[in-house]
Amino acid sequence: MNATTPPHMLNMDPLALHDDVLPQIEALSLVRGRPLVVTDCDEVLMQFLVGLELYLETQGLWLDLKSYALTGNIKRRETNEAIDPSQMPELMKGFFATSTHSLLAVPGAADALKALSSRAQVVVLTNVPFSEKETRAKSLTAQGMDYPVIANKGLKGGAVRRLADMVDAPVFFLDDIPHNIASVAKAHDACHLLHFIADKRLAKLMGQAPDSHFHTTEWQEAHDFIASRLDAAGF
Hints:
This protein is of the alpha/beta class. It has nine helices and eight strands.
């Protein structure tokens, strides 16, 4: 959840891949020739914003939804002043450590992925801290989404390109962050790109990501778009 591309990412190689991500990808057992759905988690599979707001309440903070960003918009309830950007890493670390297990699934996500899994492979590519990968996987499984989870760091183009090379088949990518979609567009231009933002409050703050092919807040719509593209490709 941050509509502004971080400055250090503006000139990043779209194929860049964190050293801890590649081994996770190589450990997957993907079927060559079978389509692949690569989906983000926060605000796509899990209700990130709702969970974050609950956590902020316990810290005496609140989120001012004046833009699609966290930095500068998280404020102290007593003074209404934004917390210093230097405090954001520790705050988000605390959020993921205490809340990853309790985030609720986005309505329709489990059913849509179950239907699509009869025609395509599914991988969850999430920028959750590496330390919370297993907790995220267990939470997804408990809510009907038992799919391989890759904990990523940075842009997602490099990871999606590696996955695409492994399957050599149609690939679909869903994410709420425009710069992740842009990086995938550059890294694997054949990818079908879906800009998905589950929370309608956030969706109102942002139009469709320029590089995406489809924009929605609903999993049924995402399912139908992917199914139609699979039909057209003969899968």
